[in-house]
Write a structure and sequence with these properties.
Two copies of one chain form a homodimer. The first copy, chain A, has helices at about 10-15, 20-30, 35-50, 55-60, 80-95, 105-120, 135-140, 165-180, 195-210, 230-240, 255-265, 300-315, 340-345, and strands at about 65-70, 95-100, 125-130, 145-150, 160-165, 185-190, 220-225, 245-250, 275, 295, 320-325, 330. Chain A has about 350 residues and is of the alpha/beta class. Chain A folds into three domains: about 10-60, 434 Repressor (Amino-terminal Domain) (Orthogonal Bundle), CATH 1.10.260.40; about 65-165 and about 300-325, Rossmann fold (3-Layer(aba) Sandwich), CATH 3.40.50.2300; about 165-295 and about 330-340, 3-Layer(aba) Sandwich (Rossmann fold), CATH 3.40.50.2300. In chain A, the strands form three sheets. Chain A has a six-stranded parallel β-sheet with strand order 2-1-3-4-5-11, sandwiched between helices. In chain A, strand 8 (about 245-250), helix 11 (about 255-265) and strand 9 form a beta-alpha-beta unit. In chain A, helix 5 packs parallel to helix 12 and helix 6 runs parallel beside helix 7 (about 135-140). The longest helix of chain A has 16 residues, at about 80-95. The first copy, chain A, is elongated. The N and C termini of chain A lie far apart (about 90 Å). Chains A and B meet through helix 4, helix 5, strand 2, helix 6 and helix 11 of A and helix 4, helix 5, strand 2, helix 6 and helix 11 of B. Chain B binds a DNA duplex (16 and 16 nucleotides) through helix 2 and helix 4. Chains A, B: This is LacI family transcriptional regulator. Chains A, B: It comes from Cobetia crustatorum.
Chain lengths: ~350, ~350
DNA sequence: TTGTAGGCGTTATCAT
DNA sequence: ATGATAACGCCTACAA
């Protein structure tokens, strides 16, 4: 009934097996040059005592913790939790634990979180996107923590990354609308400060429209926080414009849901009166009525790939600095010919 | 250009400030009995060298890691990622890091994950639900790791918990349907093995119906995996029954979405031809057409409360063994009078 | 108030 | 192949 629930130490195992602590350690880490006789004797002692190695002590001696950190903007966006799922599963497979911190798009918070993780002791770090404070990079370098960024496609020597193009599919979505005859096109996007992905998508939209000779007026770009209700508000604002846009490009699926809802509430038919696009391809996108035209972001695959690549890098293996995954647009029922075209035909 | 990027140690700070390592340590942990003069001198040295304490070494000496583990079934269900969000934010506030592992409703996997966490060294653990293997409890006790369970309302001396009733609101939902005149009621639920929450909900449904004199025949209970498509399949199966059920109780919102979609596809109007209920109150529930009648699960609050309570417990404070939160039913448009009633009136 | 020295539980470098 | 023993980096009695 002692206060400290006497757990056993490596030393106890050594004593029980009548060998040295070094030998126990060797068995534990199945090092070479261990006789089968000794191994089994030690193993028996381990089993009998129910000995569990002390991770912290091991970490101190090894200078390897067995954990990596993931710093993500938020987990409330399913696209990130899906990525984390993939990451965690694969890390577990590699026998690494996952530490998580969120910073809600506040890059200073990201720095603090990173500082905490480094102090905690992590063997590697995953960051989202290309927008970070200089301090972030400095910390990473100072403590030479292996790291990887993701979700963007910027080739930057400072930022090894596993990502996808945000601008390109955004561009394709806009071209798709243009091809359908739309000329009055508006954009609903997430705040672009500290969010290169949102910026890249907006840039893609803009670029495609401009090469089609369509300029995106400031009042045609509405920036709102993430959320269904927010998307609805954005549409209501856009529908007060004259002429009304015939198509809405949304920065993500959730905003698109909000836009579609508001449209229905306004009596607008989709896609006959209004075309809508999203970005992410959340599970429900294909089930909406009509199904949402969007971009399929390989969230789970990115998570898996991040795990494999970071582990390889931590092992000192040479891994590609830049890995790009496909983020194809998927065209569904929420986009259709522009009303004018339909009418005038 | 040495291999090891010379980071500074506490010893270096001591030397730079011309004090003992003990003094530096005292400043670091702002212990009492430190003169202001010494403190500022040490602080200056710390700042100048950019010294960061070595968490692992500190953990070994202190026997306190500054991290807690959360073992959740999955992160692909938004209800859990929302809880994790709340948990992580609050833990950060308490200056704790969060380790995450998922076990996909495989309790043996949960044990393995827990073992990993304990070995890793965590100061506390969060578990979901009341269904666990005996080994889970044994590990927790053996290593006396403070722990908390959540999401259920079972009063069990072994399981301190912060949760809510699953059966009660399920019951209320069923009663609500009965009150609306429904007699042919079916249930679509998630697999109940290793999932006490799903079981409790099913039990609540069943209980309410039975006290209304309605028996839930086996073919009226369809069990499917989590997912929208799965919900749709379940409804298709149920609609082959004669007579067709006039109301569907779903184990969670996602299944309910699937059910509603399939219903629409079959030309059934909701709620005129079919009433549908969910459980969770995901963000989109209120935005569906019609809006979903469901149960509002306080996911984020649970996360916050878990953090506060676990931290208090780790500090040795006396905390309630059992905390219950409200999970009120919210009645919306997806439920309405039974067709027969409407017709016969 | 400040300093000295031993300990936290493993690993890893030497010998043997 | 196995065994001593010195790190690993910090905390904390205990001493001054």
């Amino acid at each position: 009934m002692t206060k400290s629930s006497q757990r056993f130490l490596l030393e106890d195992v050594a004593r029980a097996a009548a060998v040295s602590t070094a030998s126990v350690s060797r068995v534990l880490n199945n090092a070479p040059h261990v006789s089968e006789r000794l191994r089994s004797r030690v193993q028996a002692a381990i089993d009998e005592l129910g000995y569990v190695p002390h991770g912290t002590a091991r970490a101190l001696a090894t200078r390897r913790v067995g954990a990596i950190a993931a710093l993500v903007p938020t987990l409330d966006n399913p696209i990130f939790s899906t990525m984390i799922e993939g990451l965690e599963r694969r890390l577990k497979w590699h026998d690494y634990r996952l530490l998580i911190a969120t910073y809600h798009y506040d890059l200073q918070d990201e720095v603090e979180a990173l500082r905490g993780m480094i102090q905690q002791g992590v063997d590697g770090t995953i960051l989202v996107g290309h927008d970070h404070l200089a301090e972030t990079l400095r910390l990473l370098a100072l403590h030479d923590v292996p790291y990887l960024s993701c979700w963007h496609a910027t080739r930057d020597p400072d930022w090894p990354t596993i990502g996808f193009e945000n601008a390109t599919p955004a561009c394709q979505l806009a071209e798709h609308l243009v091809m359908l005859g739309h000329r009055d096109i508006a954009v609903v996007c997430a705040p672009t400060t500290s969010n290169d992905r949102a910026r890249a998508r907006l840039k893609g939209f803009r670029q495609a429209l401009e090469s089609a000779g369509i300029s995106l007026a400031p009042e045609h770009v509405v920036t709102v926080e993430y959320g269904i209700a927010e998307g609805s508000l954005a549409l209501e604002r856009l529908m007060r414009l004259t002429p009304r846009p015939s198509a809405i490009l949304c920065g993500n699926d959730t905003l698109a849901f909000g836009v579609m809802l508001a449209a229905q509430k306004l009596g607008l038919r989709i896609p006959e009166d209004l075309s809508v696009t999203g970005f992410d391809d959340l599970p429900q996108a294909r089930f909406m009525t009509p199904a949402l035209t969007t971009v399929a972001v390989p969230a789970a695959d990115i998570g898996t790939c991040l795990a494999d690549t970071l582990v390889a890098r931590m092992k000192g293996q040479n891994v590609p600095h830049y890995q790009q995954m496909e983020a194809p647009i998927v065209i569904r029922g929420s986009t259709g010919p522009a009303p004018d075209v339909a009418t005038s035909s």
